Model the fold of this input.
Amino acid sequence: METKNIMIVGVGGQGSLLASKLLGRLLLTKGYDTKVSEVHGMSQRGGSVVTYVRFGDKVYSPIIDEGQADFIVSFELMEAARYTSFLKPGGRIITNQQQINPMPVITGAADYPDHLDAIMERVGLNVDAIDALALAEEAGSPKAVNLVLMGRLSRYFEDLTEEDWQEAITHSVPEKYLELNRKAFHLGRNA
Done:
C-alpha cells in the first residue's frame, strides 16, 4: 500500500494530540506501519500545533512535506488555510468552522479573514467544513471537537469500520469520558 499522509493542525489546547494518538493506535491495530510525529510549536500560548500521521506497508519517515498530505484535519479555519500548501492534488481538508483569533487579531493589528472555507473552495481545494464545536457541545463538552473531527475523517476510510474506530476510542480515552467521546465521534461521522 502506498503511504498515506494525514496532518492534524490546530491551536494549543484543542485536543489535536489525543486525536493523533487515537488515529495512530487505530492504524497500528489494523496492521499498518504507522509513524506519528508531534510538532508542538507554541501550544501552551494558543499557538499552532501540528501532528503528522503517516501509514502504509512501510513508512520510513514521520514527516510530511509540502504537497504530500492526503488529508488535513483542522481544528480551526485559519490553521486549515495556513497549511494548504501541504495538501496533495486531490487531497481533502476536513475543518472545524470555528475561528480562534490569533494575537495580531486580538491586538487589532490585523483582521481575521472572512469566509476562509469558501476561499479555499474557490481556489479548487476539497473542503469538508463543519461546525464541530456545536456538535461537540451537543455531545456534552466543547472539548470533544477532536472526536467530532475524527468522526468526520472516518467517513473517508472505507476499510475501517465504525467498530474499529470505537475500539480505538475505548483504548485512548479515560473511561469517565468514554460515552461523551463516543457520542461526539458519532455526531461528526453522521453530520
